[in-house]
Design goal:
The structure is a single chain. The chain has two helices and 15 strands. With about 200 residues, the protein is mainly beta. It has one domain. The chain has a five-stranded antiparallel sheet. Strands 2, 3, 4, 5 and 6 form a five-stranded antiparallel sheet that branches. It has a five-stranded antiparallel sheet with strand order 14-13-12-11-15. A hairpin with an 8-residue loop joins strand 4 and strand 5.
Length: about 200
């Protein structure tokens, strides 16, 4: 039976942000606080920036990584999510929403400002599915008013593993949407349907 786990769905995301810069001698880096998952595993989201070292462009490169630390002592597993290159000074924002209830999925949002802003939702499958990236801006371009941010937050998943996003209340009557990595059009989440909230390590 699928349960609505309201407490888990209200878990605060771990967030971090910085401008894309090149410090020269060292790589500029920021990361979120660790997010606990099932079986003692924890996740950290990190971004590093530096010059792209191209003689023709002189752009700022950003590399996004997910770090998974096992319960036992040891080095974390590093998963490369995506790299981008654009103008210096653009804002790089990380939002780590957490683990799915079964611990198989790690979910979060990568956002960039600047001349060509972007919002990507990532879904890392620990069961061997790799990283799936969803272009949130593109998928919601014709569904929500321009002032709305469709990446307000991941609140959980459906029983099949599709991701449930919640948008701001001023964005229209549909506040919850279902998205998947297959590129299909998002659809409104039925108001009376159950959401599997994200894993809450502090739950009794």
């Amino acid at each position: 039976m699928v349960l609505v786990l309201l407490a888990a769905s209200l878990l605060p995301a771990r967030q971090a942000s910085m401008a894309c810069v090149d410090t020269g001698a060292t790589t500029a880096t920021t990361q979120t606080q660790a997010f606990p998952g099932p079986a003692g595993v924890s996740a950290v989201l990190r971004v590093s920036s530096a010059d792209d070292h191209s003689a023709n462009s002189h752009l700022c490169n950003a590399d996004y990584q997910l770090l998974l630390r096992p319960a036992a002592a040891g080095e974390p597993k590093v998963i490369d999510l995506i790299s981008s290159a654009a103008e210096y000074g653009r804002r790089l924002t990380l939002r780590l929403n957490g683990f799915s209830q079964d611990g198989k999925q790690v979910l979060g949002i990568l956002s960039e400002g600047g001349q060509t802003p972007s919002t990507l939702l990532f879904d890392y499958n620990q069961g061997g599915g790799g990283v799936e990236l969803i272009d949130v801006r593109k998928q919601f371009a014709h569904l929500l008013p321009a002032r709305c941010s469709a990446a307000s937050g991941v609140i959980g998943t459906t029983a099949s593993g599709a991701i449930v996003l919640e948008v701001n209340s001023h964005c229209g009557p549909n506040r919850r949407w279902v998205v998947d990595s297959g590129g299909s059009r998002p659809w409104p989440f039925p108001p009376n349907a159950a959401v599997l909230g994200l894993y809450n390590g502090n739950a009794p």
